[in-house]
Amino acid sequence: MRSPLIDAATLQRRLAASSAVQLFDCRARLNQPGAGAALWQQASLPGSLHLDLDRDLAAAPGQGGRHPLPSREDFTATLQRLGVLPSRPLVVFDDMGGQLAAARAWWMLACWAGHPEVYVLDGGLAAWQAVDGALVPGAAAPEASDWRPAFDEAAWVDADEVFSGRALKLDARSPARFRGEQEPIDPVAGHIPGARCRPSAANLDESGRFKPAEQLAVELPRAEALVSYCGSGVTACHTILAYAVAGLPLPRLYAGSWSGWIEDPARPVARGD
């Protein structure tokens, strides 16, 4: 199984050898619409395009949570606007600790839309700069494509399935948010009953890069069925990415996550360990 990660030095060599690789800058700042695009316009990897977390990788907040999935039609239009084709390898990156927005892009492109070759730049923008990778203002204008993905709707679950299913639910938020001791974003603190806390930070080493596949394979929880969730369905994709790095069967994404779960006050809430 091919690793979903690519290191900066390997990316440099691939870019030098071929112009077919398409780069996507996924930088974002929570509660700051447009901040990621501004960062991309200031300086990014040469030839990169910007994938916006709020505009491209999510629909408007609502009953589906803070970052619900866009419709298949809207995401297809985004991919066509950006010129995405299944024949071109894709590399996604950001500068959020642990590659959180990039993991969301990876999941949507590879797991949901079914693109055959998507990589996450391990270590993100900092790793690129560490190998003296060039940065230029983002200004690329892509040629549109006509790709129509075959979406895999089995890759994600909704709240009803989480409520009634027997899958082990993995919560990618911090232990303090899981226990309900603090909640800086959502109006209700706690976690989905029966869930297990598996913070996304546990997937990384001290340098902020993913742990070796062999180590992740030992550390990641195993169960017959797994569901990954977080606050709004972004960090949860980091957990799924870790399973892919480890070469293990992938959890399904609860796209609404905690922010979607608490939209219905009838759903149960647990606190503590």
TrEMBL record:
Top-rank lineage group of the source organism: Bacteria
Keywords: Repeat, Transferase
Domain Rhodanese as annotated: residue spans: 17-137, 163-270
One GO MF term attached to the UniProt entry: thiosulfate-cyanide sulfurtransferase activity
Xref: SUPFAM superfamilies: Rhodanese/Cell cycle control phosphatase (SSF52821)
PROSITE patterns documented for this protein: RHODANESE_3
CDD domains assigned: TST_Repeat_1, TST_Repeat_2
UniProt-listed Gene3D superfamilies: Rhodanese-like domain
InterPro entries, per database record: Rhodanese-like_dom, Rhodanese-like_dom_sf, TST/MPST-like
Full protein name: Sulfurtransferase
